[in-house]
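Practice problem: tRNA-dihydrouridine(47) synthase [NAD(P)(+)]
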Amino acid sequence: KCFFGPRCRFLHDVGEYLAVKPPDLGPSCVLFQTFGKCSYGVTCRFAQSHLGDGHQNIINTELAKQWEGKSLVRNNLSKELQHQLRKRKFSFQKADEYLRGLAKPRGDGGKGGKATGSSAEVSNCTTPQEGLGDGLECPVLPEQGEDPKPDALQSPDPTGGEETSTTKTVGPVTDEDVIKLRSCEKRKLSIQGKLYLAPLTTCGNLPFRRICKHFGAEVTCGEMAVCTNLLQGQSSEWALLKRHHSEDIFGVQLEGAFPDTMTKCAELLNQTIEVDFVDINVGCPIDLVYKKGGGCALMTRSNKFEQIVRGMNSVLDVPLTVKIRTGVQEKINVAHKIIPKIREWGASMVTVQGY
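Answer key — structure tokens:
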């Protein structure tokens, strides 16, 4: 019974509705063929392919059972996580540890906020990395007697004024409790010879990536997401991180200008979403981004750039990649000078936008 009576604007007779409904667009419904049922029923523009006697919606039970309990789209923002971010109750333990290392004054009287030079860092990883950054040697922590690095992977000095943790642990001590993982021991990703769909702002959304995946793209990356908006729990920004189940190798691209927000955002994504790599956008020329010190402006701010790369690499369990331009000023290329430094800072791969 319709409580609106003659004022109701909808049709209650299915036959009458189908008589005035526009003709179907085709003979088959992709939702019915893929998932065994179409949630749109008689309103589907391909309804004749899954309507039975009495205009009832047909369900392929065998095919539908295969999709029960499976999530078609992952990396959604839950209400609980959004509440934690807006109330600032999310724990950034690793990021805070790294940032405290940046704020700690050095013994040579220099400013603690500046990153130390990378010339003292030596790699003893003799095995080339597989996957991203193939052939690159992995940076490791400096040995005793060298200048300390502002890296969260470095164990805090008990005599250096750091506050020791009061949390008591139970159980045997493992190797990871004593020796932190090096970059070459992290999760590896092999993309040699695979077609990489570059992140495209305002274009590379999830439906577009699904189409490109259908036509042969093997590695996909989400649109550029602003880290400050992600930390605030904005639903529109988190939508850029969504991953379709068909994207078997998927990464996200982040944009930011400061080590604190970028490192915290990297730890947030490392704990809450499923990605295979994280990319830093150091090539965006948009004025809104450039004037804040992000995008390609980071190529001229080497100290902040180094702190961001080292900080994000220290909190991620997946490879960290960087996208840069050939240069910031016209006809002045600096990419060949920056790439060796990015390698020393711990990035697994660098992509260059050739203009």
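Discussion: The radius of gyration is 26 Å. Students who identified this feature from the tokens alone can consider the problem solved.
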